[in-house]
Amino acid sequence: MSDPTGREAAQMSRRSAIGIGVGAVGLSAMRGAAHAEAPGGDSASVASVDVVVVGAGFAGLTAARALRAAGHSVVVLEADDRVGGRTKPGSIAGETVDLGGQWVGPAQDRLLALAREYGVAVYPQFTSGNNIVDLAGHRATYEGETPALGPMALAEFALVIGKFEALARQVPVLRPWEAPGVEAIDAQTMETWILANARSSAVRSAMRLLIRTLACAEAGEVSLLAMLAMASSAGGFNEMVSTRGGAQDAMLEGGVWQLAARMARELDPAVVLEAPVTAIAQDETGVSVWAGRRKWRGKYVIVTAPPSLAARIAYRPALPALRDGLMQRMPMGCVIKAHIAYARPFWRTQGLTGMVLSDSTEFGPWFDHSPVRGATGGLVGLFTGKSARRWAERSPQARRDQVLKDVAAYLGDEALKPIDYIEEVWAATTWQRGGYSSAPGPGVLSAFGPALREPVGRLHWAGTETAEAFSGYIEGAIRSGENSAQEVARRL
Question: 213: part of which helix (H) or strand (E)?
Fold first, then answer.
């Protein structure tokens, strides 16, 4: 299928900067397509399928696509008015950008394969020039992946990363709760581990900033085991934080969101938008799934919502205590993503990549996100963790002013003169409530982790949190959709 046309892109730019409707991706909502009873209400028409999938993000769409390819009937119920989950399109200065997940690494083969299938080009993250680092009062420029922390701090940084990598290798990818000494590991936060293993203020600051950027939570909020498990599933800590050869290696022309839109078009009319699931009941013969007063009947159901949102669904019979406890203890990370457009990528003429890593700003880190074609320039960056919490309730203008102030402190006054700006406050989105993923605190995975993927009768779980590789990434969401579809298909 082809990319959205220029006319469609123009239509998108006239929409709200943070709310692109489903018309922008060419998929019609099946509002009221299957009316039915609410739990305990009067019976009406009921749509029957083999499998009901809850959520039209990459996990749900992948699962539905795989099940349909295997000859099974499906319906995908999406609460939002669009597909894509924690990916989303936006328009800035006439360019389509990703307001959610966007990067892809060379080891993320499922996402890369999907891009090839749909003929979407992949291009490298711009890295030519010097990066800027400003940590614990030490400011420097450097090339490559290793921040210039100073000789002594740099040596300690390498040692700390080495220790973390060694611990991560001891954590089983599929069952992190079975790691040696797991209770002692999971009793720690990343902050306590950093304090115990790093002496230099620059190294401590670097680690805190990296954890905040990866988990969208503070080092004192997320457990050591959770971060070790994430690193283990992604191929290592260096894989997660690196640009060239790592998880931020490349992007997709036209945005990663379009892959979800194309999968949804293939499944249409099986994708039902604006259908927030409120209740799921299972019995000996199948499942009943309600979205308000609409009802669907299936043999099995796959829930792809993140645990904290899946907890808002009413289940009959009630979920086992372990699964219910897990969902109560898996909060979403807090993140605001912002894109800035300029008449030109002026930082490149200064010999800079545009990438800045600083503990002196509210906004950041940020990266070059200039269009592949054309002369305009672009930057993309984040408020994460406590910074995102501070700024989520402020006005868009206040956030924009802070972003420009922070960028100008490192790239000069030209940064104060953008031609366009767009943002997404993920903590305020009705059906995601944060990103990029869940951020479990101490004691959660070791005590409740075994319930993460375990089916409950006819109820199966998917979503990036359940992924057996690249948990927290789009790649993980795709893999989780594949796995859940295979499990259900074996039972059909």
Answer: helix 201-215
Q: Which two tokens stand for residue 124?
A: 């490298």
Instruction: Tell me what the mean pLDDT of segment 298-310 comes to.
Output: 98
**Of 217, 187, 219, 216, residue with least CA distance to 203:** 219
- Checking if the pLDDT of 113 tops 80, the result is yes
How far is residue 53's CA from residue 235's CA, in Å, rounded to a whole number?
A: 29
Confidence (pLDDT) at 11: 35
Cα atoms in the Cβ-side hemisphere of radius 13 Å centred on 88 = 27
CA dihedral (451, 452, 454, 457) positive or negative: positive
Q: What pLDDT does 44 receive?
A: 52
- Locus of tokens 């790691």: 179
* pLDDT, tens only, 251-264: 999 999 999 999 99
What is the identity of the amino acid at 224?
Answer: L
Residue 272 half-sphere exposure, CB side, CA atoms within 13 Å? 23
Contacts of 73 (CB under 8 A, 6+ apart): 49, 50, 51
pLDDT for residue 42: 41
CA 337 to chain CA mean position, Å: 11
Do you find a cis peptide bond into 317, omega within 30 degrees of 0? yes
Which tens digits make up the pLDDT trace of 345-387? 999 999 999 999 999 999 999 999 999 988 899 999 999 999 9
CA distance 332 to 468: 19
Place of tokens 């940020």: 366
Q: How many CB atoms lie within 10 A of CB 404?
A: 18
Interatomic CA distance for residues 212 and 209, integer angstroms: 5
Residues β-bridged to residue 296: 47, 289
**Are 291 and 77 within 8 A, CB to CB?**
yes
Report the distance separating Cα 236 and Cα 106, nearest Å. Answer: 14
Q: What's the angle, vertex CA 111, arms to CA 127 and CA 84, rounded to 5?
A: 100
Per-residue pLDDT at 373: 87
